[in-house]
Amino acid sequence: MSSLSLTIYKCTSPDSALDKALEGAISFNGVLKHACTITAPILTIARPNNDYLVGYNYAYIAEFNRYYYMTVTLEAGGTATLTLTLDPFMSFRTGIRAQTLYVERQENIYDPYFHDDAVAIAQGSIIDTVDVGAVGTTRNIYITCVGASQEEPTSEE
Amino acid sequence: MKYIDTIASDVNDLAFELTLMQTKRLVENFGRGGHYNLNFSIPPIVTHGGDDSNIEYNVIYNYGLNAFSYSSTGAPLFDAKLTMHHVKAKLTIPDGGRVAVIRLKERCDNKNGVQDFGDQIYTDHWLFISNTPAVAYTQPSPVNSLGFDYRFDTSDGSQLYRRDVTGGFTPYGGTSGTNALFNQTGTSLVFNSFDDNNKANLKILGDRLITALHAFSVSRWAVNVPISNACVSCSEFGGGYASWVLPTVIPNAIPIYDARSEDDVSWIDNVYDYIVNGNRHGDVDPFIPPYPEATEIEDYKTSQKLYISQNSKTNNKYSFEFLNADYNKLDQINRDQYACYVYYNHLNDVKKTSQPAPVVTVNEDITTSTDDYIAVSYLGWVDQTAEDAQTSGAFKVWYKYRKDSNVGIVVDRVEWLEHPWEAGGRVCSRTILESGEQVYTSPISGETMTIIYRAINMDDIKADFTDDDDNEDDATGTDVTIPTGRGIGTYLISEAQLTAINAKLWSYDWAQFFKSSTINPVQCVISCKSIPFAAEAAGSEQIVIANMFTDVNASRVNPSFRSGTGATLSVTMPSYNGDFTDIEHVRVHCYLPYIGWVDLPASEVISRRAKLDVGLSANTKILTFRYLADLIDGTCTCIIAVNGTERWKFDGVCGVDIPVTSDNHTNAINNAMHAGLQTALSLGSAVVGGLTGNGMMSAGGIVSAISNVPNAIPTYSYSSSASPSGYINAAMNSHIMLVIERPNVKYDANTVRRLGKPCHKVLPLGSLRGFTKCGAVRLEGIDATPEELALIAAGLERGVIL
């Protein structure tokens, strides 16, 4: 069985990050333990310097050109079994960035006037009072009367 | 459609002004000192200087009153990371020359997925490129071969510095080169030919600009106007320059190329093809200049632009009240890693608080100023609508890594004009009046500055430059006026006149007269009421009742059925959270004097804030309350308008019967005895003194009681579904009150980072940063297996951090 070029990393980025921050790269060869898919290969490696690979959780297989989440199972005799699961984001990040998609939620580009169930609203309201101003504060007396005719008014004299 | 190459004679000497601001991101991208100093000064102003205290992000420019300020060692320090540059330039275009406009988009970016504050800021900016003849100078290394890496200092007449590979600056030696984009000739900035030599440089330039936070801003531009004629504005730092020159002729359209997408680099080839060959493919839409084509100042009245100038230590103090715990006073806050921007989009607030104030001093050392002042200058304000205006406003910015803060203005939603610095304190602001006259306010010690304001009115006719003359502005409907003559008349009378009329009606002479008649004299009095609103008086005349003179002269009221002045109030409504909670969870209760409590829909009365990156403009709601009163039957109506559009009408009773007429005599006294007297209990002896010996109340006594009511206005009101009498209403609060219940929203920045907020737009993922959750994912162009595509789609629908 041909060997695969493997680089393992310590990854501290969340799974949901498109770009992963990787450090502590170690490169060596591994072989497939048994038949498996490209999305979930299981490899057997000889641990370099009998290292226990503490903290290593991420891998890249050059032949597949894909990144993987990794679980390490230490075996006797200085070997280890690496159970890999495809990280689709990191593996295809360039292609993903080229997509134009319908975005339901976004951290920065959003319309604040859309209803959002994620907003937490505590019980109880805050009351504000606005005094617009006073109207009708001056009293005026108006009398409306009928003159009764268009003729010259009658004099009392 | 005319392009600039076909009307080249109109656009010789295209002067413009731009602002460069440079960010840490820019520094990191290019791994250099990060100073792109392009301080062209015509006439000589600006260059380098400022605070050399080596604070990160310190300002190393200082618009220093025509001085070229060096550090204490006398050498220019460009190691500090630069934040802003201001450029004035004149683009000389020969006949047949071509100018292209490149639209850029600035963005405040995440840094390694970490963002100190919430929002990214997107703003469009413009870059002008032309094919004018080259002015040769030394060709530096490619990365430095942009004009932005050069500093022109005309203080000594001719020095031109360029940044060398060591990060320092060396004087320009005058040798020739061809790759620079533009250069200085005399007092003009001249663009070089755009050709294969500097084509790559333009790409680099574009990259830098695109990745900068506030990369590039052409805030104003003009043609055929010597740049030296540009007026000056002011600064809180101590002088400098900036302002605008108005174009006399500008082209209708220039091809524009969109370079706002980081991933799309084709625009550079399109620009090149247009400049060199005249082919216009790839231009996205015509560039509409900031000003419409105009040759007369009057034509600017159609402009939708509005400018606000900041003044320093001179006049028009604006009281900044930023630090309310809940930021109620702030219209919009944008934060990024480096600064916090607060926008004052409510121009009405600015207007109200910017009252003329005495000038204290002239040419004061404003570096030490602790107060900020804003004056408002309107350009094209004549037909400014409220909605237009709300896209403009003043802003204040605090820098995270700086000790100072700046005040600036927002020109419109895609351009913002920063730092209207003052040069020599000569001119504080400019106002263009309706007549077209330009008023430059010059502070003189002791002088009272008068900035002419114009209310942002609700004129519905754009071409109409007179406020409040449209139906929409004025009172709708037609006033009903009783015909003059001896028919029917309504008079404004005093209490003494009322007593005199009452005495006349029941005098012996009149009684004798009416004995021979079939009518009772009081039947000729249709109404006598106390109304809390003033009506327009049409002149004094003797009151005639039943065709008989009363010997009482009073003001006849015209019109008879509605109130006149003093019955209109307005209020600018707040925006609380600036999101859907303002609509869904806010309750607006309104107390209307003489009417009662009514509820108004929050969706229509709460102001909305702008979020420009998703196309939301601010929408400030101004409520206007207008009362109309029927002087005869005592009813009143309050009409509530939102931004000038009448939306609701509520009816009530404001008149108090005065028992003169036969019709209301009994009712009035009953009301007074049962309702009015209850009020009187709290009014002490006011009404008691009006009672007659037999328990009846005289007209004069009731008038006295009513006249005491306003002195006992309670501080609160209650709601009632009944229609209270005018007596009770008169005793209630006469203030229009808004009681607004708003939700107690618990915002958490971490929640936004993990969940985002509703977007509902189709967007290129390459343009986004931060958490992004997609829906209905359909992937294209990814070389992956179906299983992997399914994994990607599922991941995008769960959410990805870009």
Task: Report on this structure.
The complex is a heterodimer of chains A (157) and B (802). By secondary structure, chain A is mainly beta. Chain A contains two helices and nine strands. Chain A has helices spanning 88-91, 93-97, and strands at residues 3-11, 22-32, 42-46, 58-61, 66-75, 79-86, 100-106, 120-134, 140-146. In chain A, strands 1-2-3-6-5-4 form a six-stranded antiparallel β-barrel. Residues 148-157 of chain A have low confidence and may be disordered. With 802 residues, chain B is of the alpha+beta class. Helix content of chain B is 16%, strand content 27%. Chain B has 14 helices and 36 strands. In chain B, strands 14-15-17-18-19 form a five-stranded antiparallel sheet. A four-stranded mixed sheet of chain B has the order 4-3-11-12, with helices on one face. In chain B, strands 26-29-30-31 form a four-stranded antiparallel sheet, with no helix packed on it. In chain B, helix 6 runs antiparallel to helix 11 (699-708). The longest helix of chain B is centred in the last third of the chain and has 21 residues, at 662-682. Chain B is elongated. At the A-B interface, helix 1, helix 2, strand 7, strand 8 and strand 9 of A face strand 22, helix 6, helix 7, strand 23 and strand 24 of B. Strand 9 of chain A pairs antiparallel with strand 22 (488-493) of chain B, so a sheet runs across the interface.
